[in-house]
Design a protein that fits this description.
Helix content: 25-40%
Structural class: alpha/beta
Strand content: 25-35%
Oligomer: single chain
Bound molecules: shikimate-3-phosphate
Radius of gyration: 21 Å
Largest sheet: 5 strands, mixed
């Protein structure tokens, strides 16, 4: 994809359904009794991988024009796959499904693409093993491919060293099959879609927040069944982020991004935009299916650098690539700290963000857990090496709009992972 400088982005845009929620609708629907009807589902490669895995586990899933129907078979209704389960590029599919598979009476194997098969899985292998699961890294490198065989699960009280919704969700799902309560305590609260949605499906699950600190503990008890639901997936704030940033940094712009999930465990970007001096307004706020939703209006603003650190990091971890682009356009320096998790995403994002910003002429320094970005210098068109990371492709597509000259985004097809129609959505704003 080649892009060049632009001004005056105007209009309304709706973005596809939330990726995290779309995955969970399929998974929870598959192990619930009865039908789950899903609207505004994200038909991106990651969520399609989740559908494919559950079909291989014997679940009938119908893809209609404007909905997905999952014919759940109950908590114990999955059947043994005849082949390896392909998880593609999707960390969420891998880590969450591993929790479900750990509780089954059959063997399964999971494998993904090169990026997925190099991401850390020890973070789920260790606690699942503590629960009595039999799960191993086939190449003994603590990564996928993973092999899971029948185990008898018991509840544990796990203190996770990382605030990771994938780890937490994996263990809570395994907890559905355990012989007692399972608790997961994280250093600060990560996205809580699993807790909210499992409750809607009928699970006995609750979260306790530490009064004196950011720690939170989610606890689930085994239950006899979950029950199918009708769900409308909110627009993905991680996808909306590109239009929010474009509206703020592209001169003479005004963009309304409609129907976006603003769950507080996901909405750190909104605070960052405000703190950077962005003109951003939430409109039409409401709650649907336990999730908060709003329309978001943004107008071109002169941004200034800030420090982003601490408990806000898990609430904006996927938005750091686009926040870094905003920082490059802001006056002064932006410092990002406590974000070492960036190293374990679809690419090592500390490296991919800083290398590509530098290629565009920005002064930027990677650190062990984040980066320093000196904003306000003009960006120049460059060749962007995405390393097949969808969020790098989209973030630097926005940077291209404010850079002089042409920018070439290599392997831009990787946007299919979370937002196949990203470039089409843009055309509506021209
Ligand atoms: C996700 C959790 C986050 C996030 C990922 C989706 C989820 O990962 O980065 O894109 O749906 O649970 P971690 O749990 O590894 O932080």
């Amino acid at each position: 994809m080649e892009l060049t400088t632009i001004t005056g982005l105007k209009g309304e845009v709706t973005v596809p359904g939330d990726k995290s929620i779309s995955h969970r609708c399929i998974m929870f629907g598959a192990i619930a009794k009865g039908m789950t009807e899903i609207h505004h589902f994200l038909r991106g490669a990651d969520c399609l991988a989740t559908i494919d895995c559950f079909r291989r586990l014997g679940i009938q899933i119908e893809e209609k024009q404007d909905s997905i129907l999952v014919y759940g078979n109950g908590l114990h209704g999955l059947s043994a796959p005849t082949d390896i389960l392909h998880v593609g590029n999707s960390g969420t599919t891998t880590r969450l499904i591993a929790g479900i598979l750990a509780g089954q009476k059959f063997d399964s194997k999971l494998s993904g693409d090169d990026s997925l098969n190099s991401r850390p899985m020890k973070r789920i292998i260790e606690p699942l093993t503590q629960m009595g699961a039999h799960i191993s890294s086939i190449l003994r490198n603590d990564c996928a491919p993973l092999y899971i065989t029948k185990g008898n699960l018991h509840g544990i009280d796990y203190h996770s060293p990382v605030a990771s919704a994938q780890v937490k969700s994996c263990l809570l799902l395994a907890g559905l099959y355990a012989d007692g309560e399972t608790s997961v305590t994280e250093p600060s609260l990560s996205r809580n879609h699993t807790e909210l949605m499992l409750k809607e499906f009928g699970a006995n699950i609750h979260t306790v927040h530490r009064l004196t600190g950011p720690e939170a503990t989610a606890t689930i008890s085994p239950c006899s069944e979950l029950y199918g639901q009708k769900i409308t997936v909110p627009g993905d704030i991680s996808s909306a982020a590109y239009f929010i940033a474009a509206g703020l940094i592209v001169p003479d712009s005004e963009i309304l991004v409609k129907n976006i999930g603003i769950n507080s465990t996901r909405a750190g970007l909104l605070k960052v935009c405000e703190d950077m001096g962005g003109d951003i307004t939430l409109m039409n706020e409401r709650t649907e299916g336990g999730e908060k939703i709003a329309d978001i209006l943004v107008r071109t603003s002169q941004l200034h650098g800030i420090t982003i650190e601490g408990d806000i990091i898990p609430t904006l971890i996927d938005e750091i690539p686009i926040i870094a682009v905003m920082a490059a356009c802001a006056d002064g320096t932006t410092i990002i700290r406590n974000a070492e998790e960036l190293k374990f995403k679809e690419s090592d994002r500390i490296e991919t963000i800083t290398d590509n910003l530098r290629a565009m002429g920005c002064t930027v320094f990677p650190t062990e857990d984040g980066m320093f970005i000196k904003g306000g210098e003009p960006l120049h068109g460059a060749t962007i090496h995405t390393l097949l990371d969808h969020r790098i492709a989209m973030a630097f597509s926005i940077a291209a709009l404010v850079a002089d000259g042409n920018t070439k985004i290599l392997d831009s097809h990787c946007i299919d992972v979370s937002y196949p129609t990203f470039y089409d959505s843009f055309e509506q704003l021209l």
